[in-house]
Amino acid sequence: GSPGPGKPDVQAPFSRRRGQAIFLKAADLLSGPWRDRINASTMLGQSKTVFQAEIDSACELCDFLRYNVSYADQIYRMQPENSKGIWNRMEYRPLDGFVLAITPFNFTSIGGNLPLAPALMGNTVIWKPAGTAALASYYFYLLMKEAGLPDGVVNFLPSSGADVGRILVADPRLGGIHFTGSTAVFQEIWQQVGVNIASYQQYPRLVGETGGKDFIFAHPSAHEESLVAALVRGAFEFQGQKCSAASRAYIPASLWPQVQDRLLEEVGKLKMGDPQDFSTFMGAVIDRSSFDKIKGYIDHARESEDALVLTGGYDDSKGYFIKPTVILAKKADYVSMREEIFGPVLTIYVYQDQDLDQALELCDKSTPYALTGAIFAQDRQALIKMEEALSQAAGNFYLNDKPTGAVVGQQPFGGSRASGTNDKAGSLLNMIRWTSPRVIKENFVPICDISYPYMEEA
């Protein structure tokens, strides 16, 4: 990043090369001596199994740190053309103000990336972590300090949402907001920005990844075993508390009997319990509020004539445990086919094989979200047709794979519609949002003549 106004380059607190060196050092610390501490705090604080913690707080966060350095280099190399006697260059300045990073509980890696991506591009950041993930977030903040992050670059500030809105979002110096959380909260923040728009010294950059009602859509030619594996892993890993988790599925009637049998068999094998027990597949949901919300959807399905609970339930006698729950919806617009639940609840609608087109339209139009989705078919023409029919239904789209597990640098992550601004975390597209480019033209050939050639007499 560039130094602030009136600040000589030698005094810049976070020069480009120094920042990149710090990030790479942090990745080495995270993959080595800090790995157990960050993983353990994620397991204990967020009830993640050892595998889910490892792929999140160690692997993905290391990827963010290293890939973002590479993306920054790619951005700096994006320079304009020159002409004879002219040197044109693009300076990628930080935003003219601070960036507010509001991070979620469900991924330690997202908690680290949201403040650090803007910081790498030279911005000063205020980081508001989720209270339910404060331990892992704080340990990672300490790791960054050990790696050499200067004071004042990223400011760790656990606080309430009300204080953030009242003080930080209203501050005239706000340069941008990097957010992951619920659609409702992001919309509220956007409204607050709109109310204050005339008071800002610049238009704030708003980058948000929000809710989802992610789907798996099976064609009659789908491979049954891989479909069931995707349903189980996609819906129930980390208790379904992933933005990308499979929450609804469309299964053709010709496949449903055998899919149902195999699905219920596999779900019945899943072990819930303490993440310190390495044989567990699932832990508890994050807090009482989440437990009560998910419980409400399960109770509604049990009482509704439009749904049937095939398996599942809940138990809060010791911890907030929601059993992996499968609901069969008798109507495609049943509430748990439309609304985000953010828990281990998978709702399935069985469509008639001949009604494929109508089912695809239902999948596309039933919810306001468009984050992740997956289609399953062995028929190549069917895959092409389904991919085209669902072209706007998901920002991350999977063919014959579960809709979770996006990898930095391979599947940049983000969705549109009510799911966010689709600025693709884990890519150059996200990093460039935290810059304010300045084009500089330098002329090496003095021009002294005021008139133009066409003005000369013939």
- What's the tally of helices? 14
Q: Give a short account of the largest sheet.
A: 7 strands, mixed
* Mean pLDDT over the residues: 96
Name the quaternary structure: single chain
| Elements, N to C (H/E) | HHHEEHEHEHEHEEHEHHEEHEHEEHEEHE
Please give the alpha-carbon distance between the first and last residues. 53 Å
- Estimated structural class: alpha/beta
What's the name of the CATH homologous superfamily of the largest domain?
Answer: Aldehyde Dehydrogenase, Chain A, domain 1
Percentage of residues in helical conformation: 25-40%
Number of strands: 16
Say what the CATH topology of the largest domain is. Aldehyde Dehydrogenase, Chain A, domain 1
Query: How many domains make up the coordinates?
Result: 2
* Unreliable stretches covering 5 or more consecutive residues: 1-13
Q: Could you tell me the radius of gyration in angstroms? A: 25 Å
CATH domain class of the largest domain: Alpha Beta
> How do the strands of the widest beta sheet line up side by side?
9-10-11-8-7-13-14
The 3D shape can be described as globular
Strand content: 15-25%
In the CATH classification, which architecture of the largest domain applies? 3-Layer(aba) Sandwich
Q: What this model shows, in words?
A:
The protein is of the alpha/beta class. The chain folds into 2 domains: 9-210 and 420-442, Aldehyde Dehydrogenase, Chain A, domain 1; 214-399, 3-Layer(aba) Sandwich (Aldehyde Dehydrogenase, Chain A, domain 2), CATH 3.40.309. It contains 14 helices and 16 strands. The chain has helices at residues 16-31, 35-46, 50-76, 108-120, 134-147, 161-168, 183-195, 224-236, 256-269, 288-303, 335-338, 356-365, 380-389, 428-432; strands at 86-94, 98-102, 125-128, 154-156, 174-180, 205-209, 214-218, 246-252, 307-315, 321-329, 345-351, 369-370, 372-376, 396-399, 416-417, 435-443. The strands form 4 sheets. The chain has a 7-stranded mixed sheet with strand order 9-10-11-8-7-13-14, with helices on both faces. Strand 10 (321-329), helix 11 (335-338) and strand 11 (345-351) form a beta-alpha-beta unit. The chain is globular.
